[in-house]
Specification:
Elements (H helix, E strand, L loop, with lengths): L4 E6 H6 L1 H13 L2 E6 L13 E3 L2 E6 L3 H4 L12 H7 L4 E6 L6 E3 L2 E5 L1 H5 L5 H7 L5 E5 L16 E5 L2 E5 L4 H13 L3 E5 L9
Parallel strand pairs: 1-2, 4-5, 7-8, 10-11
Antiparallel strand pairs: 3-4, 6-7, 9-10
Length: about 200
């Protein structure tokens, strides 16, 4: 019998988007994944504040994204990561860096982030970041989504790993930006495949 693994979602997803939650749950259950929800969350997104897993270490960063901190009306969505971490029972290693889990896309020892990380950590350099995370073998920084409405600076809506040297790229960018992004990643040895999505899903 295969080992049961657990996938966690926010309780807000179960309450506010029941159909989506039930579809995800039934699909994961078919593949022998147990589904649980975290109660101590403020919105449906948990990737943004939960620890980053590097090998056997869970790294907990400072979760203070400017898109929640600077606008007081958004403070109600700001989760204290310590509470859901306690629910799961994870032992974490802490860093003082301000990060956002949605801005970290990784495969093995390679990490892709947008340059948003440098606007939230003044005077931080690529070399500084790599020293703080020795588990990273290669750090790749890409420009953030150029759409003015995109305030998050997340890499996970822009690129995803298909394999170690093959990336899936969101297609919803101006041609000049897209050309530069593809060229940059191609020059680093990646094969890039575009994901064609509808206009209304470009920020999903």
């Amino acid at each position: 019998m295969s080992q049961i693994k657990t996938v966690y979602f926010s309780e807000h997803l179960r309450q506010d988007h029941r159909a989506i939650f039930n579809c995800l749950k039934s699909t994961l259950n078919r593949y022998n994944y147990e589904v649980k929800t975290l109660k101590q969350t403020k919105d449906i997104w948990i990737r943004d504040f939960m620890p980053i897993l590097f090998d056997d270490k869970a790294i907990q960063y400072q979760y203070m994204p400017d898109y929640l901190i600077e606008d007081k009306t958004n403070h109600k969505y700001l989760t204290n990561p310590e509470l859901p971490i306690k629910e799961v029972g994870i032992k974490t290693h802490k860093t003082e860096l301000i990060l956002d889990g949605g801005n970290i896309v990784k495969c093995n020892g390679t990490v892709i982030m947008t340059d948003k990380v440098f606007t939230e950590n003044i005077n931080l350099t690529t070399e500084d970041f790599e020293k703080k995370f020795p588990q990273i073998k290669k750090l790749i920084v890409i420009p953030r989504d150029p759409h003015s409405e995109e305030v998050y600076g997340h890499a996970d809506g822009m690129v995803r790993f298909i394999s170690e040297n093959h990336l899936l790229i969101n297609s919803q960018y101006p041609d000049d930006f897209k050309k530069k992004l593809h060229k940059h990643l191609n020059n680093l040895g990646f094969t890039c495949t575009e994901l064609k999505v509808k206009e209304d899903t470009k920020y999903a």
